[in-house]
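Protocol step 4 of 6: structure prediction from sequence.
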Amino acid sequence: MKFLADMGVAGRVVEWLRANGHDAVHLREQGLKRLPDSDIFKKAAEEQRIILTFDLDFGEIMALSSTHPTCVIIFRLRNTRTPHVIARLQKVLDTSIADLVAGAVVVVEETRHRVRHLPLGI
């Protein structure tokens, strides 16, 4: 799978994804620290990448988008330490691959994750 990590996501999460066979990039690595959210979404869609973020705006951008060529994983965690983020991401990858491929907003919480397929109502 292909991932694009937003600025709030630790670089070690990207390293972990790569070590597990995924194509993952971080905005910081590409010198795109100040890229607006709408442009990050466009970049992810063009490159067919799943966005990893702590920013709630991406769910709204995706919901309002007329096309849904990408997926967004939004972390809503109190414990934002990298090992915990990786453990929660691993759970999503273990149980929701079909949702990620189909295009969805996945909200990752402390003990569960919720999948919202778009357009809303499906």
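Step 5 (inspection) to follow. The domain at 2-117 is CATH 3.40.50 (Rossmann fold).
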